[in-house]
Structure formats: structure tokens, C-alpha cells
Amino acid sequence: MHGNDDRLNDEELDQVLRSWRAPVAPPIVHRPRWWYWFTGSIRVPVPVAVCLVLLVVAGFVVMGRPRVVYREVLVPMSSISFQGLQPVDELRPRIIRRKDAEN
Amino acid sequence: MEDAFEQYHQGIFGFVWRLTRRTDVAEDVAQECFLALMKAPARFDDSRASLKTYLFAIARNLALKHFRDNRPEEELDDSNCSAPVNPDRVDIARAVAELPPLQQEALLLFQYEGFTLYEIAAITGTDAGAVKSRLHRARERLKQSLAPYKTKGVFDARER
């Protein structure tokens, strides 16, 4: 600690403070509007950010799964032949009940 | 508007720079002050305060917002200073930075921007008595913390 004699007086303090000068303000640069799209920032609440991250992760999981492709096989009509097809002589419908089916 | 910019831009920049020691923050705040005035000129009521007081009040609020958002991570970093390094100046900056924020702003507005106690009271939203008290305490503290200037013989050297 300094004694009272070592302390600055008002005049000395003013003199010291005057020697602290701020730098000259840089000229304002007028930037194009698109610049702010690259340098701008937005605040996102944590729950919203977490939901967005989960959505993105879920999207990647769904996209990354192997997809089952059902292909319809088209057979040209010209290759189908009905030559071996015989009409049914006698229709014998048989009714199978549940208890019969178990036996 | 251009006149106001010419007149107060450097002052606002200097005030925020001395508060934050950050050239980029001072630049942003100075720009935002004038943008705020351009966006809502009706908010400025010249019967309540001068344009200078109004602009410095905006600058002060933006600087406080910066402190609230960044103060815990920020240290007094002399490398952020774009002015040439001068050991004397760094000591003064450190001594001022060690003052409580309310004393700092009162001192900076009074000492460097030439505001009266009443104008500082209008900027900081308090009464002139409180400003006077803060200013007094700030100066007393600085007389002590900057005392090494006396023993360094700075005043003798300058007087010669």
C-alpha cells in the first residue's frame, strides 16, 4: 500500500488519465446485404436445437436403412399358353370345419 | 444524421473501447447506436435529453449487454488492443478495468467525454448524487492504484 504522500493528487490523476487515448475509430464499411447471411448469427433455444439435431439424426437413420424393392414381373401375353388347361369334370367342394382341421 | 455521426462516432467508439478493451465490440456498438437511431428516430425526445446523451445511453446499454453475455469468458487481453502498446497506457487501462463497472462508466463519461453529472445520471438512469459518489470513489481508488506513476517520476519527466 502507498502512503498518502505517494498517492496522486487530482491534478496528477487527470494528467495520467489524459495520457490514455482510445484508438481512432475505423471508418464504417458499408457491406452488401448478402454479407450478413455469411456472418450473421441467430440464437436458438437449447430444446429447439436438441429437437433439430434429433430430427437430423433420425433422418439419417431412416435414409441409411436398406430399402426393400418390390419389382413387378411382367410376363408378355404372347408367352402364356392355355393349351394344357383342361376343364374340371366334377366339382366336389369339401367343407373343412375348424375341428376337422385340427385332426 | 450524418452530422451526428461525424460528431459522436469517435466518442462512442472510444467510450465502449475503454469499457470493453475490444476494438471489434466498440466498432459494432458504435454502428448499432446509429442504426438504432435510424430505425426509430421517434424514440429520441429532444425535450428529455440531448442527442449525444441519447446515443451514449444506447451505447452504454449495448456495452452492458456485451458484458452480460461475455464477461465470464473474457479476460483483460491487451492483445485485443489495436493501439500501439505503451506500458503506461496498459497500466491505466488495468487500473480502470479493476474499478466496479458503475464507477468505470461514470469515470469514463466524465473524464473522457466531458459529460456533466446530470448528463451521466440521465445516461445511466440514476441521480446526480449517485454519479458524484461513484466518480469520487473511482478517483480515490485510481489515485491509489496509479500511485506508481508518481514514484516512476513520470510527472518530473513531463515537466522538464
Please give the structural blueprint.
The complex is a heterodimer of chains A (103) and B (160).
Chain A: H1 10-18, H2 33-39, H3 46-64, H4 98-102
Chain B: H1 2-20, H2 23-39, H3 51-70, H4 87-97, H5 101-111, H6 117-124, H7 128-145, H8 148-151, H9 154-159
Helix pairs in contact in B: 1-2, 1-3, 2-3, 3-6, 5-7, 6-7
Q: What percent of the residues of chain B sit in helical stretches (DSSP H or I)?
A: over 70%
From the alpha carbons, calculate the radius of gyration of chain B and give it in angstroms: 17 Å
Radius of gyration of chain A: 44 Å
Mean pLDDT over the full residue set of chain B:
81
Molecular shape of chain B: globular
Oligomeric state of the chains present here = heterodimer
Main sheet makeup of chain A: none
- For the secondary structure, the number of strands of chain B is 0
Percent of sequence in beta strands of chain B = under 5%
Helical percent range of chain A? 25-40%
The CATH architecture category of chain B equals Up-down Bundle
Explain this structure to me?
By secondary structure, chain A is mainly α. Chain A has a domain at 43-68. Chain A has 4 helices and no strands. The radius of gyration of chain A is 44 Å and the shape is rod-shaped. The model of chain A has no long low-confidence stretch (mean pLDDT 80). Chain B is mostly helical and 160 residues long. Chain B has one domain (2-159): Butyryl-CoA Dehydrogenase, subunit A, domain 3 (Up-down Bundle). Chain B contains 9 helices and no strands. Residues 73-85 of chain B have low confidence and may be disordered. The chains are: A mainly alpha (103), B mainly alpha (160). At the A-B interface, helix 1 of A face helix 1, helix 2, helix 4, helix 7 and helix 8 of B.
Spell out the key features of this protein.
heterodimer, A: 103 residues, mainly alpha, 39% helix, B: 160 residues, Butyryl-CoA Dehydrogenase, subunit A, domain 3
